[in-house]
Amino acid sequence: MKDLKGIKGKYYIAKLIEEGEHEHQDFKFAISDARKIARSLSAFANNDGGRLLVGVKDNGVIAGVRNEEDIYVIEQAAQMYCRPEQEINVTAFKCEGGLTVFRIEIARSAVRPVTVHETDGSWKAYYRVKDENIAAPDLMVRAWRRATKSEGTLLTLNDAEKLLLELAENNPVRLEDFMVSAHVSRAMAEEMVIRLHVMGMLDFKYDGERFNLIAL
Questions:
Q1: CA torsion angle 62 68 74 80 (round to 10)
Q2: Residue 62 β-bridge partners
Q3: pLDDT of 2 strictly over 50
Q4: Which pTM was predicted?
Q5: Residues 6+ apart with CB under 8 A from 9
Q6: Angle 133-35-1 from CA coordinates, rounded to 5°
Q7: What residues pair up with 125 in beta bridges, in sequence order?
Q8: Which is it for the CA torsion 139, 141, 147, 150, positive or negative?
Q9: Does pLDDT of 96 surpass 70?
Q10: What whole-number distance in Å separates Cα of residue 154 and Cα of residue 132?
Q11: pLDDT in tens, 152-180
């Protein structure tokens, strides 16, 4: 573990806090559960990366890190509860009143999905949407796995795949709506979604309730 002697950063941390919690930032008042932290790490790593500000309450008030041993719990979350293991960058900042805030940075993972070892023994992937960690749906996870294994082979598009891209060009489309329009089964529709995602032509967009499909 690196030297966590705090550097001056009250104005820097205050500026980050002003942003609030969002797609790439989360506040953590205290660290007590490595698995919960792992969910945040997974969500950031499966999106475009992000940071945790440890020692900051949900309302943005700086409470300071209560125990410097918290960093060991965070490292445990990254190494033992995430698969594949995640590399984190930890920096300590000294703020107003001598309080310390940890900035935990995690990059977008080159290998997705990054999954979390749950209490029931399963491994579940998460994705960061606005200020929430959302469980990634099975289809999205399967598409990530296929993309990781893909060698980038160029595939020709069939008529149904062209229709899907057309439907998803301007607005996200539900998988079920595409199935009806193309007159295809769920299995066939899901395979097309995965193929188009691997080709970099289709992605997933969360609407507040579910992930839909959008053309890139």
A1: -170
A2: 56
A3: no
A4: 0.92
A5: 93, 94, 95, 101
A6: 110
A7: 115
A8: negative
A9: yes
A10: 35
A11: 666 789 999 999 999 999 999 999 999 99
Better-scored residue on pLDDT, 70 or 13: 13
Helix 159-167, helix 186-198: angle, nearest 10: 70
Parallel, antiparallel, or unpaired for β 211-215 and 132-135? unpaired
Task: Please tell me the predicted confidence (pLDDT) of residue 4.
Answer: 63
Asked which of 66-75, 162-171, 203-212 is least confident by mean pLDDT, the reply is 66-75
d(CA 66, CA 101) in angstroms, rounded, equals 10
Burial of 154 (0-12, 13-18, 19+ CB in 10 A): exposed
In this structure, what are the phi and psi dihedrals at residue 132, rounded to the nearest 5 degrees? -125, 150
Residue written as token pair 């977008």: 108
From residue 78, give the alpha-carbon distance in Å to each of 132, 140, 145. 19, 22, 20
